[in-house]
Records
---
Amino acid sequence: MIRVLILTILINEILGNAVSFNQPKFCPTVKWNSKGELFTATETSRSLPLILFIDTNNTIYVNSGKEDVISVWYKDHSHPKSISYLSKVEISSIFVIDNGDIYIAYLNNTISKWIASTDSFVHVMNGESICADLFIDVNNNLYCSMAWEDVVIKRSLYKDKETDIVIVAGTGSGGSAAYQLSSPIGIFVDTNLDLYVADRHNDRIQLFHSGERNATTVAGQGSLDFTISLLKPWSIVLDHEKYLFILDYGNGRIVRSGPHGFQCLLGCIAKEIKEYRLYDPSRLSFDVNGNLFVCDANGRRIQRFTLQKDSCEKSEYRISARKRCIVSDFCGDMLIP
Ligand SMILES: *[C@@H]1O[C@H](CO)[C@@H](O)[C@H](O)[C@H]1NC(C)=O
Ligand SMILES: *[C@@H]1O[C@H](CO)[C@@H](O)[C@H](O)[C@H]1NC(C)=O
Ligand SMILES: *[C@@H]1O[C@H](CO)[C@@H](O)[C@H](O)[C@H]1NC(C)=O
């Protein structure tokens, strides 16, 4: 445990923690157990979205409990603490920033912030529509995907005024051209400020390079390197090397890109067995150890898929670049000097 802690600190120091969530660097042969373990079952009603966020302190945020509560598991605590947002209005998405404050999008188009140090809420903005997903980039810009309006909007959090809201993707009329979106949900902005969008009804993942309104399709329908089809992808997460992890909601699986192209990662085998199956995966987060946590929307559960610690052992990496791997790669056992 202590070794893991020291190594985690070491890795964080070396990589520099620009972001508040975990973006591990995996070795090329990395594998996860395809059998999931139940992290928590959820009591929220079926019609509500499930939220999930894991920060760099390994704190896990889920709306699993009673309907007006975010359950927060601090590192190594088996029982969650509850943050009550005391509202009749349910939430669609959260984003935790590096000081532990939580941005919360409500289904009444409002965004608030919960301030960790004072356990209080402040109003952030009123939108035109529901934010299906929230993201805050390294420059402190807030992004919100408005699935019903077919756009992604952005505003700087440095400014008090709400007047600086701009559309950064989509036009407001759904469609499949390079400049259009159709029911966008999951969004992810990398450190170059490039925006990835799960363009749900177009069955594709769109990449809008910073400042550009025409996107490149990087996965799914219409992509240049079309090797895997997606059905209503819900969200998209990037690892440290910008490989994609796609929540392929309609196919009940998680697809990833890697050094050898796309592959089905989870929900691919033994579809008849509950532990292997995903019933509409909607969100994904890595914990600090590289394990995958998945919101299984229709299973009403959060599943954990553990990293196979020995999956990197045979990789050439271990022999040829052991030292490099210790300091900068996520290679399970290899991390232990
Ligand atoms: C939406 O709900 C939040 C949380 O209850 C509340 O603070 C906010 O005022 C509401 N916004 C509107 C426009 O009703
Ligand atoms: C992680 O913990 C440190 C030390 O308690 C704190 O300063 C930091 O804000 C925490 N980060 C997050 C994302 O909560
Ligand atoms: C975006 O694509 C459209 C056609 O789909 C084209 O007319 C337009 O010039 C492009 N814009 C830029 C800035 O490339």
---
Amino acid sequence: MNYTVQQIAEITNAQVIGDKNLLIKNIAFDSRIIYSTKNAAFIAINTQKNSGEKFIESAVDRGITVIISEHQYPQFENITWIIVKNSVEFLQKLAQHHFENSNLKSVGITGSNGKTILKEWLYQCLWNEFPTVKSPKSFNSQIGLPLSLLQINESHQLGIFEVGISMPNEMDVLENIFHPQIGLLTHIGTAHAANFYSEEDLIDEKIKLFKDSKVIIFNGDNILVNRKIREIYSSKKLISYGFNQHNDVTFKNNISKNEDVVVTYFDEEITFPVHQRDEATLTNALALITVLKELGISNDKIVDKINALKAVEMRLEAIEGIKNNIVINDSFNLDLDSLKTALQFLNEYKKSKKSLVLTDIIGVNTNSKELYEEVSELVNEQHFDNVFLIGEEITKFKDLFKSKTFTFIDTQELIDNKYLIEIENQIILLKGARKFEIEKLKDLLELRKHDTVLEVNLNAILHNINYHKSLLKPSTKMMAMVKANAYGLGSYEISEFLQHHHINYLGVAYADEGVELRKKGITTPIVVMNPEQHSYDAIIQYNLEPEIYSFRVLELFYEAVQKSGYDKKYPIHIKLETGMHRLGFKEYELDQLSQSLEYKNLKVQSIFSHLSSADVPSEKEFTLKQLEIFEKNSGYLIKNLGYQPLRHILNSSGITNYSSHHYDMVRIGIGMLGESANADIQKQLQSTVSFKTVISQISLVENGESVGYSRKYKTDHLTKIATIPVGYADGIPRLIGNQIGNVGINKTLAPIVGNICMDMMMIKVDDIPNVKEGDTVTVFNAKPSLKEFAEYCKTITYEVLTSISPRVKRIYIKD
Ligand SMILES: *Cc1c(COP(=O)(O)O)cnc(C)c1O
């Protein structure tokens, strides 16, 4: 976009206070990821749950001078205000105007599953055919779609936008601002179906998007979808795809066989090799082909493009590097959009020094001077300490970059040069076109090299937190339990992420865990659940808040506060015993407790208790009793205190099962990691943790031979055995050997055979087609799931996670 403040005000009927002639090219809605303040405005978005206005201050701190808001805050000086009636409606109106005045060919994707992957695939196939704009990620459509549309500029010829809805009537608003020429309806599944009366209602709502479309491409395997679209949109060009042979676009041959697949597109045939044969991937491939055909791409090109598609790794990985660096690896593709996204991602890390490796941008048709001017502007805003440029094109524009800049013809030259590996204590962003293979730099800079990793998906954690939040009143606070190294996943990394997403409290078990977080820069309030006697000084020094569960702890902690010279009321959290019989004050102690607290220089920040069986449906009666005791005893204590501390009692399963007892705060743990004992809730959560390794060796073992220690497995035919480099020292219990447990390869389970060794184990891979050395093995994630793995181990998911040895490398991914 490119509007003056005055134009924006005219389009949206807003009021301007300040400079009407300023030019706005970019609207930021998240004050934390403002990557450029030039020609940018910040919009304070108010939703039912949140007021964006509290972030105006941080946007101003970052240098923003134009604010779009429902209210003016005169305390900020030299700001131009665009005052609007309703921030969300403002965005929608501006986006509608912007879209309708662009000359863009547009694809609108809706459906329950596969939207994001199809959008990314289409983008990968099309961005070097036409200048293309797309939705950056899959955020909330009511706000995300308008923000995406506002990214359209004059040079774009094609726009690919994802439109998700979860509630009835949402599509009316969205269709009003965005009417795609080509409508694409992916699979309709049960996601969000709960908010609709019936599947039919859900379909009706989704296909409203296509009211003004010329062409509708849809998955015709769903009979109801097929019927509805043909009924409602009979006058449009309709193309159905799917496995079912009645579709216009389908597979000719048996796709389960290990050969090239043949797609019939009306009366044409297109043959291409596939690498993944699962149903979802193949269905998406049909949709992709259909859209590419519709956009006039030739069959030969389509085959080439599909061959070039890797499984979409559209994620940025953050890796622990050598010399205390953090390495952000985004070596998959490079274009302006993805450069922006990567720069935003960088801003989320608090390292003061940073370096960038950047290559030529390949395959865009624009004038290269203009292109690299824009690139250098984006890069200069970030004030990198070093910039390493690779490639013949970009190095010509070296002088545009204001940092200390080095130039190289190719990646190997940079590796040979050794500048890069001298960097210490920085965040290093690797951003390059695929051709340059800068992932080689990642190998060079990565700290430990292990094939075995525990991969933690931070996006999934956020999804799970937001799901639980959606069950709470907006005013209810949330504490995230990050005890025991955040259930084994990495206490600092998880806490840093949660802090960034405004979690209200963190909970740790021991003071040391809290001290470590403070030392690394976590400032969110931290409660220590088991404050040990020797740790009180550290607690006070590092501003941690202890759980006080007995008179002994109360007296000793109070003494420590007095000795420390702390002169305000020190925050503490009172734990009540309500039936768990672990820690806490009992009912008969409450009078004495109130008296003790009265004359002490302590502030009761919260009163809480813990449910023993919130996840056990058959113990509902007991749980209700616990809740009743809590209500009564906390109420009694509050009356005596004369002020209102926060009250909280629910853990993750409590949040979902006892929704009328959220009180002022809830304490989430396993739920944020995507686990629930309740099957319906489980469906709404995303799996967060993936424990992966690779096959070290495959052997054909003759009939009658034995495998592993003590000869516990004997073959009864010529058997294919794979050895993988994880064992009981990595946290895999030895008791799941001997065919009790399984691991997953290519989504198929393979049994563990023989005894598990300290660092290795053997699995039987007879039934896995095409298995080869170096293939990825899933210890747990999707198949087997964490829950299934815990069942093999005869334990609960919590113990599985906390048992994974520290030597297994943790890596963190975010979109
Ligand atoms: C660990 C813990 C929680 C979180 O429990 P989940 O079952 O993982 O949600 C909540 N409260 C307290 C006191 C805890 O120790």
